[in-house]
Amino acid sequence: MKAQSKAQQQAAGAALSAKRGDSKVSDLQGASKEMYDDMTEEELEEMASTKRSELPDEA
């Protein structure tokens, strides 16, 4: 699934970082925390890799 907005892509990137152990899970909040809990690393990778130039600021 591709990200629908820049904010969603950013949240997916934060969740992916925590999933990989590069950042603390306790630092996550809001959408990124939900994504961390509900999505696989592969799903987060796909969402976070959406090109920013193709996205609106907010959905």
Fold and architecture overview:
The protein is mainly alpha-helical. It has one domain. Helices cover 51% and strands 0% of the residues. It has three helices and no strands. It has helices at residues 6-19, 31-38, 41-48. Helix 1 (6-19) crosses helix 2. The radius of gyration is 11 Å and the shape is globular. The two termini are 15 Å apart.
Give the averaged pLDDT, no decimals.
93
Shape by Cα distribution: globular
Domain count: the total is: 1
Percent of residues in β-strands: under 5%
Radius of gyration: 11 Å
> How large is the count of helical segments?
3
User: What's the total count of β strands?
Assistant: 0
Q: What's the helix and strand layout?
A:
Blueprint: H1 6-19, H2 31-38, H3 41-48
Helix pairs in contact: 1-2, 1-3
Brief sketch in words of this structure:
The chain is mainly α and 59 residues long. It contains 3 helices and no strands.
